[in-house]
Amino acid sequence: MKIAVTSQGDTLDSQIDPRFGRAAYILIVDTETLEFEAFDNDENKNSFKGAGTQAAAMVSEKGAEVLLTGFCGPNAFTTLETAGVKVANDQNGRIIDVVQKFKQGNVVYAKDANKDGHW
Amino acid sequence: MIISIASGKGGTGKTTVSTNLALSIDQEVQLLDCDVEEPNSHLFLNPVIEKKEQVIAPVPEIDLKKCTFCKKCMDICRYGAIAVLKENVLTFENLCHSCGGCFEVCPENAVMEKERSLGEIEHGSSRSISFIHGRLEVGQVMAPPIIKKVRSYTDPNLITIIDAPPGTSCPVIAAMNGADFILLVTEPTPFGLHDLKLAVETVRILDIPHGLVINRAGLGNDDVKYYAQKENIPILMEIPFDKEIARIYSKGQMVVDKLPEYKVKFCDLFRKIEQLVEKGGQN
């Protein structure tokens, strides 16, 4: 299964980036092989508005079924939900550890956004 | 003639100057309250409202039967208001700035216009003043379309006074652009001076003749005066830091009604503005 993880760097040793829309990188990780692709999220990070909706569309396009991140706002959550991507918020630590935790089934999927929208 | 009253810092006295100036001029005057996020000129002028109208803006709605998911609409949107997914397209009204880009780029005519309400405009009158103000709806953030709509009622045969919003961002530009004169109201405090400098930079980019009113004069220090002198910005009026003026204001009354000597001062302010406009802003 492919999952998306927001990351401060472009390796599995990097720390989770708590922000979703404006994360430094979004890693798309294959949970079986641990092969991954790191996407530089620079464009969304510096976008004027709507970083969350655009990052959500990207995660869905890359075929991820689950997103592991820190905080996810309402517009991003709606987009992910519509795309059928499950969201597990409040993650922290190293990417590899969070992926292992996910594989062991130790994450809870969010029913709603856990961050207010930005103006 | 259009005179826009702006400030940089909020709470310096834009509304006090706008309303008292409007009542003092011996000609027919139009007052446009363009501080649409928190209009307050009406609290002092108590206009009789004769007409109300909604301000609407177009937002996109996607016809999924026509959509080929090509993402052109999503790519052109600077505000992330459209998310094209594999079999669905989401639009976010609260992010949309109604630029119209998505309608233009769609090759399939799948982007339809839906209306959303941004706020309302009220027309009325108070004594000799023709009064119009806009009010942004709670939860909306796009002030400029409402300000532009209010300004579309500018009558070129009248003296038009615009009560502008504070700050130096888009709504302020919308309230100053195209004015014949910008009257900057400041207070002699470090905060007043700091924001005055930002306002002056903005006005200079717009290249509009401008002058200064120092409100609450006697408070703070003389740095605003030194700045005005150095930058060759005329100080057209000083309103003292006076308990009686504060008392009149706090009751929603007009300074020129209660203290008639101010009517003369505001008339004098208007004459100075007229002269500056005639001379193209040369002090």
Task: Identify the CATH architecture of chain A.
Answer: 2-Layer Sandwich
- Number of helical segments with 4 or more residues of chain B: 11
The first-level CATH class of chain A is given as Alpha Beta
Order of helices and strands of chain A: EEEHHEHEH
As residue ranges, the low-confidence spans of chain A are: none
Helix content of chain B: 25-40%
Mean pLDDT of chain A: 94
Low-confidence stretches of chain B: none
- Rg calculated over all Cα atoms of chain A: 13 Å
Structural class of chain B: alpha/beta
Distance between the termini of chain B: 18 Å
Spatial order of strands in the largest sheet of chain B: 3-6-7-2-8-1-9-10-11
Number of helices of chain A: 4
Distance between the termini of chain A: 35 Å
The assembly state of the depicted protein chains is: heterodimer
Biggest protein-protein interface? A-B, 20 and 17 residues
Q: Helix fraction of chain A?
A: 25-40%
Task: Give the count of structural domains of chain B.
Answer: 2
